Amino acid sequence: MPELPEVETTRRGIEPHLLGQTITRLLIHESRLRWRVPSRLALRVLEAEIEAVRRRAKYLLIDLAQGSLIVHLGMSGSLRVLPQTYPRQKHDHIDLELSSNQTLRFNDPRRFGSWLWQHRGQTHELLAHLGPEPLSDEFDGDYLWRVSRTRRAPVKNFIMDQNIVVGVGNIYAAEALFAAGIRPAIEAGKVSRARYQVLVDEIRRILLEAIQCGGTTLRDFVNPDGAPGYFAQTLFVYGREGEACKSCAHTIRAATWGQRQTCYCPRCQT
DNA sequence: CATCGGACCTGTTAGC
DNA sequence: TGCTAACAGGTCCGAT
Question: What would the pLDDT profile of A144-170 be if each residue is shown by its tens digit?
């Protein structure tokens, strides 16, 4: 489900409910996520005050005095802020209970998400080798051009590589390539510096617009207040195989590498 | 190093 | 209507 805009939407949704709250209890109902949730997590966070709620890539970081809870939503995870008495639903795996008598409830049908711990001042190995944030100044056309020179993989796979740039998943990769007029199958190392600059501008614009829309709801994404995102209406190619291009009316085509489908317009993207 | 396929899971949908 | 297969927003890991 979640790419950067959905994770950022989640962050903004939970932040006001979490900041300054004391954690009264962490309940792990199901520890078998992407990695087994360590039971000592519950002791670590007990009675701690939440100092900040940050995002790095698609990870949420809940900062406490001694360190941070790292939460990843995987493919199907979501966080809601609910009254502690709210009945648990299927796939509700973790509750972070707060002094406000609310709970941050983690639901994840596919269990590809994760809850981990990072000591203060340290960087978890999973976060240690991530590429730059797409909305930061570090990320520009020159950077992408430079690090792509030896890459023969399709440019679409290249921009989805979290070591190159974080936060761009299957939806936004397809959309950004369409907006930049670049065929997803082109070898990353053969794309010009000028085209990478256009691509960077489009990635930024699309991610920002999607955040403003509250993310993309294809089937089940909801923000922490239970509302869907509205960016799906704005999609030009993702999930539109066989339909008419909104720009030139040519039929949208699909290609698949490694189990991930991508859609593109053969006329608009060269 | 870079790339590929398999793995981890459940739910929904398309096709027979 | 019912069963099965394919596919879904992520990404790590081991083999090549």
Answer: 999 999 999 999 999 999 999 999 999
Over chain A, what is the mean pLDDT?
95
CB contact at 8 A, A77 and A2: yes
Contact partners, residue A199, CB within 8 Å, separation at least 6: A141, A144, A155, A159, A176, A177, A180, A182, A191
Long-range contact pairs involving A224-228 (C-beta distance under 8 Å, separation at least 24): A224/A10, A224/A13, A224/A14, A224/A17, A224/A79, A224/A80, A224/A81, A224/A104, A225/A13, A225/A80, A225/A81, A226/A80
Which nucleotide is closest, CA of A172 to its C1'?
C9
| Confidence (pTM) | 0.96
Residue nearest to nucleotide B2 (CA to C1'): A151
Is A2 labeled as catalytic in the residue annotation?
A: yes
Active site residue A3: yes
Supply the pLDDT for residue A219: 81
Protein side of the strand B interface (CB < 7 A) = A 32, 34, 75-76, 90-91, 109-112, 150-153, 157-158, 188, 219, 257-259
Residue A10 has pLDDT above 90, yes or no: yes
